[in-house]
Write a structure and sequence with these properties.
The chain is an alpha+beta fold. Helices cover 25% and strands 11% of the residues. It is globular and about 50 Å long.
């Protein structure tokens, strides 16, 4: 089903991103938020990463300083493996139709994760290019982000650089270490 108009398609290819407001109905956002809150509560009884994904990685990643009183659940890897709620949104959101409209109908979910910025947490995601985290020989891949909560300047907004998808790809290795970000002189 076509969900994008010509202006949105052109903007995506020009800028490299597209904002689809209300892509997830409010009741599904509430269900996602509730599920996340349950995971935060579960994390209170742990002091380090816990749980295991199907491929053996830790599922729940905690920030340094995480405590039961002040939980800082940083990331949940592959929530679609353990949550029908998250899997349903990944399958049924209009974002799926938008992706198919942009790159064709054979869409595959490569992976899923929840990145969290809980109040008082210290995680900072520095400027990076997603492609370097998932290198492929073809470039017909799209990252879809769902914002569960309202994004404000106070809670760590996402910033994008229009047109940066056209290159160049910047090094994310610095002094022999993969830092997951470009050098400060680039931005």
């Amino acid at each position: 089903m076509d969900v994008l108009n010509r202006d949105q398609i052109d903007a995506f290819w020009r800028d490299g991103y597209l904002l689809l407001e209300d892509a997830v109905p409010p009741e599904k956002l509430a269900a996602l938020s509730c599920e996340f809150d349950n995971w935060v509560d579960q994390s209170r009884s742990h002091s380090r990463a816990f749980g295991t994904t199907l491929d053996g990685r830790p599922r729940f990643d905690l920030e340094p300083g995480h405590t039961a009183e002040a939980p800082t659940l940083r990331r949940i890897s592959s929530p679609t493996e353990i949550s029908d709620t998250y899997l349903d949104v990944m399958r049924s959101s209009i974002a799926v139709d938008a992706v198919a409209q942009l790159i064709g109908p054979n869409v595959t979910l490569n992976h899923s994760k929840v990145n969290s910025k809980l109040p008082g947490s210290g995680t900072e995601v520095r400027f990076h290019q997603d492609f370097l985290f998932e290198p492929h020989t073809n470039d017909d891949m799209i990252t879809v982000l769902y914002f569960i909560d309202e994004v404000t300047m106070q809670n760590g907004p996402l910033e994008v650089l229009p047109g940066s998808h056209r290159g160049p790809l910047y090094e994310h290795w610095h002094d022999g270490v993969f830092t997951g970000s470009v050098a400060g002189v680039v931005v």
